[in-house]
Amino acid sequence: MAAGKTIDVTDADFGTQVLESDVPVVVDFWAPWCGPCRMAAPVLEKIADEYDGRAKICKVNIDDERQVATQYGIMSIPTLFVFDDGQLVDQITGITPNFEADVKKRLDAALAAK
After folding, report:
1. Contact 86, 19 (CB under 8 A)
2. Which of 64, 65, 75, 94 is the most buried (most CB within 10 A)?
3. What is the pTM assigned to this prediction?
4. What digits encode the pLDDT tens for the residues 38-84?
């Protein structure tokens, strides 16, 4: 895993990258045409750098990876899911007013549960 980089996840490696991860994972369901998704991207890169080694930030392009998006019932984007030990433990839909703080709060809660 490259330091400070989000990880592009496919339908094929979602299980390995997310469900089998030994650290908490934030999964960003997004699409290139989504304005709010583009606003979220640099914030998620920053969080990936801050939490490097303690958590992963993964991105699922819903246009390319429809199986996972359908499996989790993604109806609007951006939607962020927090997984811990393979279980969905929290989510954020859309860009909240304090987006960075909200993502970190959920990630910190997952880390505290370890």
Report:
1. yes
2. 65
3. 0.94
4. 999 999 999 999 999 999 999 999 999 999 999 999 999 999 999 99
